[in-house]
């Protein structure tokens, strides 16, 4: 009789533990050797824990600005956001500055007297200088505190569609297929570094977070990686089937580079530049125009053209889609990240700039990690 009662008692305890009772009394029995539950105490605790709330991303922009004469040209880079929270935008022959703090608009320069047009803009790392690439092939550098041109860099023979700063060194990519690197502090007569590798127009330039490597994309479907010493690329990737304008280095995973291809390619590809090996690839279904990583979590945003004109937020490395944002009626050719890393601004040939909250400010407290991941270090 005693053994039968004990057996019934064990069965009751196992039944309760299996269904994850939250009673304190039964919690004490989780580690009991008499438990008949197939679940371990840790698994039972996990089942009882509340589900983490899914982050909500607004599907509508929190601000929309008119941008008349914003060109519908895939190869240009006409929008950038400085660390001082000022937006620079190239509209036709002019560059305008918009303060996100005061909403004040200032016209920085007008190239119409030279029958010229703005083809790229890029802020320096400190946000006190802005470089302006032009259709005629020269680059001007402006001190925004006094609205004064402080440098004019010659050397290209065609339009300059891509710019990238590394301290006081400015890299420029052109339709003449060259990348020129110049220290703006030196005399203009000092020869520039000429990086030769692309066979068609250079349309994307990005420095790695440690400022040691420059990634360049071109209309020749090639992605090159350059170091500070060589005048030839140290790595070349040829998997894309269309122009490579979208380039982004991960701020979280050392050596991880993402790139996106044009209409005939539509893919976002990831590269381990430490080993030179390709990693994941995802077909987005439409032209990839821009890429940007979140500053605070392992997510990235992509903007697209033909044929869906959408904005997508991705989780890395799973490449699950977190959000899909629509609203532009033309290709979403321009993208910039806010200095706090929370918002983005997108621009399109529909002549609007749209501001979206897509990333969380705080760094995730618990990152999902895998022993199989090539990149586990957070910078």
Verbal overview:
The longest helix has 17 residues, at about 1-20. The protein starts with a helix and ends in a 22-residue tail after the last strand. It contains 3 helices and 28 strands. It has about 375 residues and is mainly beta. InterPro entries: Cdc20/Fizzy, WD40/YVTN_repeat-like_dom_sf, WD40_CDC20-Fz, WD40_repeat_CS, WD40_repeat_dom_sf, WD40_rpt. Keywords: Cell cycle, Cell division, Mitosis, Repeat, Signal, WD repeat. This is Fizzy-related protein homolog. Belongs to the WD repeat CDC20/Fizzy family.
Question: What tags apply to this protein structure?
Answer:
single chain, 379 residues, mainly beta, 4-stranded antiparallel β-sheet, 3 helices, disordered N terminus, disordered C terminus, cell cycle, cell division, Fizzy-related protein homolog, WD40_CDC20-Fz, WD repeat
Low-confidence runs: 1-7, 15-30, 364-379
- Main beta sheet: strand number and arrangement? 4 strands, antiparallel
| Helix and strand composition category | mainly beta
Shape: globular
Please state the oligomeric state of the protein chains shown: single chain
Radius of gyration: 26 Å
What's the total helix number? 3
Helical residues, percent: under 10%
Q: Order of strands across the biggest sheet?
A: 1-28-27-26
A few lines on this structure:
The protein has 379 residues and is mostly beta strands. It has helices at residues 2-18, 24-27, 41-48, and strands spanning 63-66, 79-81, 86-91, 94-99, 105-110, 118-123, 129-134, 139-143, 148-153, 160-166, 169-174, 178-183, 193-196, 202-207, 214-218, 223-226, 235-237, 244-249, 256-261, 267-272, 277-283, 288-293, 299-304, 311-315, 320-325, 332-337, 343-348, 352-357. The strands form 7 sheets. A 4-stranded antiparallel β-sheet has the order 1-28-27-26, with no helix packed on it. A 4-stranded antiparallel β-sheet has the order 2-3-4-5, with no helix packed on it. A 4-stranded antiparallel β-sheet has the order 6-7-8-9, with no helix packed on it.
């Amino acid at each position: 009789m005693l053994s039968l009662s004990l057996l019934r008692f064990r069965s009751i305890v196992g039944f309760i533990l299996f269904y994850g009772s939250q009673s304190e009394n039964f919690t004490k029995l989780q580690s009991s050797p008499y438990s008949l539950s197939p679940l371990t105490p840790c698994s039972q605790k996990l089942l009882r824990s509340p589900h983490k709330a899914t982050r909500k991303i607004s599907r509508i922009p929190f601000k929309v600005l008119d941008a008349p004469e914003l060109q519908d040209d895939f190869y240009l880079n006409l929008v950038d956001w400085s660390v001082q929270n000022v937006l620079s935008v190239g509209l036709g022959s002019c560059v305008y500055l918009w303060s996100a703090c005061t909403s004040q608009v200032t016209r920085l320069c007008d190239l119409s007297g030279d029958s010229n047009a703005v083809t790229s803009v890029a802020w320096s790392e400190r946000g006190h200088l802005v470089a302006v690439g032009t259709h005629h092939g020269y680059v001007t550098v402006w001190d925004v505190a006094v609205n004064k041109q402080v440098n004019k860099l010659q050397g290209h023979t065609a339009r300059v569609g891509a710019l990238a700063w590394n301290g006081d060194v400015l890299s420029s990519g052109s339709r003449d297929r060259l990348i020129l690197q110049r220290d703006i502090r030196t005399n203009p007569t000092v020869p520039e570094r000429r990086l030769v590798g692309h066979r068609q127009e250079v349309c994307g330039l990005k420095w790695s977070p440690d400022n040691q490597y420059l990634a360049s994309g071109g209309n020749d479907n090639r992605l090159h990686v350059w170091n500070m010493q060589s005048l030839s690329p140290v790595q070349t990737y040829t998997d894309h089937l269309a122009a490579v304008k979208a380039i982004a280095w991960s701020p979280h995973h050392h050596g991880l580079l993402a790139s996106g291809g044009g209409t005939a390619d539509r893919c976002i590809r990831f590269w381990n530049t430490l080993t030179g090996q390709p990693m994941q690839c995802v077909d987005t279904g439409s032209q990839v125009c821009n890429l940007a990583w979140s500053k605070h979590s392992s997510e990235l945003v992509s903007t697209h053209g033909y044929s869906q004109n959408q904005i997508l937020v991705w989780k890395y490395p799973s490449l699950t889609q977190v959000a899909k944002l629509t609203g532009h009626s033309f290709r979403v050719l321009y993208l910039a990240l806010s200095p706090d890393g929370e918002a983005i601004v997108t621009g399109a040939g529909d002549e609007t700039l749209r501001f979206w909250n897509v990333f969380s400010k705080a760094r995730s407290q618990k990152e999902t990690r895998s022993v199989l991941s090539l990149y586990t270090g957070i910078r």
